[in-house]
Each structure stands twice: as structure tokens, then as C-alpha cells.
Design brief:
single chain; 618 residues; alpha+beta; six-stranded antiparallel sheet; 16 helices; 23% strand
């Protein structure tokens, strides 16, 4: 049977905290940091085991684009998400915004005025009251206010409460289309004139492609002008008068304070300095005209002298003074009696003279059109104004007298003789061209023609048109045709005949093969020319280009690349004319004859034009 032992722990309870612990080495903390070769510092103390989520996150961090990769692997919805699925119903913006949402806090502001009749006032009979139109686009309402004027005695402020204002004709309500700058608007029986708008209103109309018009200055009545003048006088904004300045100088002199003499100083600084302008005045009286002046402005005392600049044989008096030297006022006035006080100012100063503008010289409009070099230098140095830039050209245009046309010829005598009778009192015979007559004397160029008036009995008739180059006369002879019923002989005697197409006499260039000319009211188609005529024309190809082979060949440049033009066998004249017509070149029969005579080939089947020779000549 076990026996109980005596407890040995109880006596040691009283010694707790007062005795040293047992130094057996179990109470020291072991270090956990160590160093391993190839790893550096390591912690040998085993930590908590990582979870699966931590391991998965660490594996994802191995790649840089793990977020994009995961997003691409996520399942996507089969249909695109709608705005109804993303935005709540109370936060959606409607596709077609209503006016209260689209034009929220947008106001069109116009400025205008209306005229009010004033009774029982000696200084005014009407008054212009300024108003401001406020059109609210969110609900189409219109309000009107009047700016308050101090001590006006008129209830001002809100002039028209904000509401939808009906049109005067009763067709709907007032809208943006009813307001423009410069028009009159009638509201409730009162007419307002709109004279301007603000920047937003002008931008709004321009964005919508509407011309709102230009701003107009506000109209001021007599009361407003006097009110501004009184306020400026109360603030001391008006300059003192010359009488007040003179009284001030006199007071300073009485107390012994010497004042500087401005006129003497101006004279000493600007003596012998004169501004010289050139001017003119258009005198509109019965026997008046344009009068030129030389204007002298004396800087020493601000006086003006105007002298007339007469030209030679002008017919005017020899004294040139137009305005005697003295101060020139802008507005002319006369005092009722001597010694009466007159208004201050109004005298022309150097800054009031502009080249290109007019000044008032006792009711006459004198225009300054130029100045001298000293005047130009003075203005550039002191005022920085280029007077030469606005110089006017006053040179008079040369007179052009209308030439009287001679009367028409009455068919009596030659036209040259009748014209000399109109030009001279003692007419002389017309001088012919003697050199032309001596060179071409005896020449006779003959063309064969047929009448093409459409009559069957005239189709077989043949004529010879003779042209005489020495006097440019034309004669027509009819050839004998058997059983034609017409006698041969002279059809039109030799004379100078006018060409109905040009209105001038027939010339050599008007007659060529293929041309239809009208002589004696009958159309003649020229079909041939004799050998002498062709040789004469080729010898004078400078006057008759249709007989120049090179000129005719150059007209065939558009068809020089055609295969038929390269053919050694040549090309028929009719085919050549057809090819030229297809390329826009209208060849006449005389040009074809010239090409055949210069580049022709005689073949059994008929003459042809040698194309290679024509191309070589080009």
C-alpha cells in the first residue's frame, strides 16, 4: 500500500520572483537565420504551410500578362449588353433629347428700344426706352426687362413677365425665327425695334445657318444725352472753358505767379514750319467746275491759308487767295453783336487734317488729296500717320469725242468719192493705189462657178467669175450652154462689189474653189480655177494661204499618224478630206487642189495625194 509523501512545492511558492532560475539552457531562444552557399541568407525556422490559393496566385505572377490572359479565358455573353442592362432607367439619356434637356439654361438675348410719347414737357416730346428680350429656349417663353436709370421717375425693371407670348396675327407663339437685328417686333400692341444681340445668340444663329443681321447703335433721345452730360459735369469730366483758363491765369498773375505764355512758346518752337496740302473743291454752281487749291497750315499759330492753283489759260482771275490766313473753324457761326461770347473749340488742328478726307471751309467741301515731303515726315514723326498711303488720283480722264459715222452711200458715183464729199468742202479725186495698179496691171484671175439657187432650170448654167487684182473689181460672164435657154455673155459688168457676208468689197481671199459667193443676189459655187489663176495664187501665198503647200500640210498634223498617211500608194482626195473631217479639220477644195499640185501622184485610177511626202513636209 502506497504511502503519501510530504509535499515539497509549497514552501517554494514564497520564493517565486526572488531567486535566480535554473541555468540548464532550456530557457534561451535558438537563432533561426543562417547562411547557405549559393542561397545567401535563409530562415531555418519553418513557417506556416501556404494555402492552395496562395500557391495558385504565385503561379500566376510568374507571367507578366496574366491579367489579360485570364480576361480572354473568361466566358463572354452570346449577345451584346444593352444600355438597359448597364444604366439604370432613371439615368438614361434619351436618343432624341427634349427641348427642356437639350436647351437647358440657354437663353437668346436681344437688345432693343421702343418710342414713348411724352406730354407736358418743354424739353422733349418723345423718349426712347431701352429694353432687353430674354427668350428661354427650354420652354419657349419670353421675358423682357428694362435697365434701371437713376432718378428717372419711371417704374423700371421687369417689363414683361416670362411666359409664352402669342404672335400679333394669332398664329402660334413667338419663336427664334421672329427675332432679327434691325427689324420691328410688335408685342401686345407695342412696337419694338431690335438693334443688337449678345455673342451667344449670334453664335447660335450662325451655327444654324441663319443670318441674324448686323448690330445697330442704340438710339439716344434728348433726355439721355443731357443726362449723360450732367453726370459727366458732376464728376468733373468736362474740360474747363477758355474763359475759365484765362480767369485762372489772371488770378495767378494777381498773386505774383508768372504764367508761361503758350502762344509764345509755340511760336518759338514752330516758327517757319508750314504743312502743305494739295486740295480741290467741286463747284456745283451753274458755271462752276473743279478748282484746285494749295492749303498752308502754319504750326506757329494754328492758322490756315488757302490759295487757288490756276493752270495756264484757265480763264480765272490772277489773284489766288481763296481763304486769307487765319484760324479755320469746323462749324461756322456768326455773333449777333460785337463782343458776344462764342463757343470754345472747333478750330482745325494738325491731327484733324487727313489726306483722302474732306474739310469744311465755310460751307465748301474741300478734299485733301496729297501733301509734300515735309508734311509726310511731320505726321510720321509726331502722329505716326502715313499721309501718302491715302493719296488720291485726281488726274482727269482724257476726253473722247464720239466720231460721227458718214451717211450711207446713195449709189451715185463711187463710194470713195461720196465719202470725200462728206470730209471736205472742196472735194478732191480719190487717190488710187498706183503701186498696186502697176504691179498687177493686166492680171485676170478666172474661176468657174455654177448657180446653186435650187431652180432646176439653172443647174446646167456655167459662169466665169473674173477678179482683177489691180483694182479689186469683179466681173461675171455666162458660158454658152446648148439648149439652156439663156444667152451667153456678160452677167455682171466689171465693178467693185460688196460681199454680203463681210459688208466689205470683194478681196482676193474671198474667192477660192469650194466657196459659195453671193453676187447680184444669186449664189455661185466656185468649182474650178484656171492654170494661170492657180499659179498666181501660189506665187502670192502670203496673201492667199490656201495656195501655200506647207500651210495646207500643217493642217494635216492631227491625222499624220494614220496608217493611210504612211501608205506609199497614196490616198484619194475624198478619203483625205473625210479623215480630216473626223479629226476636226475642215479642208476646202482649194486646199485639196494645192496638195495635189505639190504632193500629187498620177495613177491610172486617178490622182492621189502622197501621204509620206506630206508627213515629211510637216
Amino acid at each position: 500500500m502506497a504511502t503519501m509523501r510530504k509535499s515539497s512545492s509549497l514552501p517554494g511558492i514564497m520564493m517565486l520572483g526572488s531567486s535566480m532560475p535554473k541555468a540548464d539552457g532550456n530557457f534561451l531562444r535558438k537563432p533561426s537565420l543562417s547562411f547557405r552557399l549559393g542561397h545567401g541568407r535563409v530562415d531555418t525556422l519553418p513557417g506556416p504551410r501556404p494555402t492552395d490559393e496562395t500557391i495558385l496566385a504565385a503561379e500566376k505572377l510568374r507571367s507578366a500578362g496574366w491579367r489579360q490572359k485570364m480576361l480572354s479565358e473568361l466566358p463572354r455573353p452570346q449577345t451584346a449588353s444593352k444600355i438597359e442592362d448597364v444604366v439604370p432607367k432613371n439615368m438614361r439619356h434619351p436618343r432624341v433629347a427634349p427641348a427642356w434637356l437639350k436647351h437647358d439654361k440657354q437663353v437668346l438675348r436681344f437688345y432693343g428700344f421702343f418710342q414713348e410719347h411724352v406730354t407736358e414737357r418743354p424739353d422733349e416730346n418723345c423718349r426712347y426706352r431701352q429694353v432687353c428680350f430674354m427668350y428661354h429656349m427650354e420652354d419657349g417663353t419670353l421675358g423682357m426687362g428694362e435697365p434701371r436709370v437713376e432718378n428717372s421717375g419711371i417704374p423700371q425693371g421687369q417689363f414683361l413677365k416670362r411666359h409664352r407670348v402669342p404672335r400679333p396675327d394669332g398664329d402660334g407663339f413667338m419663336g427664334p425665327d421672329d427675332f432679327r437685328c434691325g427689324i420691328d417686333v410688335t408685342l401686345y400692341g407695342r412696337t419694338y425695334h431690335i438693334c443688337g444681340c449678345d455673342r451667344f445668340t449670334r453664335w447660335f444663329y450662325e451655327e444654324n445657318g441663319i443670318d441674324i443681321g448686323e448690330d445697330e447703335p442704340l438710339v439716344e433721345d434728348r433726355w439721355q444725352t443731357e443726362y449723360k452730360f450732367r453726370k459727366a459735369a458732376e464728376r468733373g469730366g468736362l474740360p474747363p472753358s477758355s474763359q475759365a483758363m484765362d480767369a485762372k491765369l489772371i488770378a495767378k498773375a494777381e498773386i505774383g505767379q508768372a504764367a508761361a505764355d503758350k502762344k509764345l512758346t509755340q511760336f518759338l518752337l514752330n516758327d517757319r514750319k508750314v504743312l502743305r496740302f494739295k486740295a480741290y473743291w467741286d463747284d456745283t454752281t451753274l458755271y462752276g467746275g473743279r478748282i484746285y487749291f494749295v492749303l498752308h497750315y502754319y504750326l506757329a499759330d494754328n492758322t490756315v491759308e488757302i490759295n487757288e492753283a490756276h493752270c495756264r489759260n484757265s480763264g480765272r482771275d490772277a489773284y489766288p487767295v481763296f481763304y486769307r490766313r487765319g484760324p479755320l473753324t469746323k462749324k461756322n457761326q456768326m455773333n449777333a453783336y460785337p463782343g458776344m461770347l462764342s463757343s470754345d473749340g472747333g478750330v482745325y488742328l494738325p491731327e484733324d487734317l487727313h489726306v483722302g478726307q474732306a474739310i469744311n471751309v465755310w460751307g465748301r467741301k474741300v478734299v485733301l488729296y496729297d501733301c509734300d515731303d515735309f508734311t509726310q515726315k511731320f505726321y510720321m514723326e509726331y502722329i505716326e500717320r502715313d499721309q501718302k498711303a491715302n493719296s488720291l488720283d485726281v488726274s482727269e480722264k482724257p476726253l473722247r469725242h464720239s466720231k460721227l459715222m458718214p451717211p450711207p452711200h446713195n449709189d451715185i458715183g463711187t463710194e470713195e468719192d461720196s465719202l470725200i464729199n462728206c470730209q471736205m468742202v472742196q472735194p478732191k479725186p480719190h487717190k488710187p493705189d498706183v503701186a498696186k495698179m502697176m504691179i498687177h496691171s493686166g492680171e485676170n484671175l478666172r474661176f468657174e462657178a455654177k448657180m446653186v439657187n435650187g431652180e432646176p432650170e439653172d443647174e446646167c448654167r456655167r459662169f466665169v467669175i473674173a477678179f482683177f487684182p489691180d483694182t479689186d473689181r469683179v466681173a461675171v460672164y455666162e458660158l454658152q450652154q446648148r439648149n439652156s435657154g439663156h444667152m451667153a455673155g456678160k452677167f455682171r459688168e466689171k465693178a467693185r462689189i460688196k460681199n454680203p457676208e463681210t459688208g466689205k468689197y470683194f478681196e482676193l481671199r474671198d474667192l477660192y474653189v469650194g466657196k459659195v459667193v453671193n453676187i447680184c443676189s444669186q449664189p455661185f459655187h466656185i468649182i474650178r480655177a484656171d492654170e494661170h489663176c492657180l499659179q498666181f495664187l501660189e506665187a502670192h501665198c502670203d496673201e492667199f494661204p490656201m495656195a501655200d503647200p506647207l500651210a495646207c500640210a500643217r493642217r494635216l498634223i492631227p491625222i499624220s499618224g494614220e496608217p493611210e498617211m504612211r501608205d506609199e500608194a497614196g490616198i484619194l482626195p475624198d478619203r483625205l478630206k473625210e479623215l480630216a473631217a473626223q479629226s476636226g479639220v475642215d479642208l476646202v477644195d482649194h486646199e485639196i487642189i494645192t496638195l495635189l499640185r505639190s504632193f500629187g501622184m498620177d495613177l491610172p485610177d486617178g490622182p492621189r495625194v502622197c501621204g509620206p511626202r506630206v508627213v515629211e513636209a510637216i
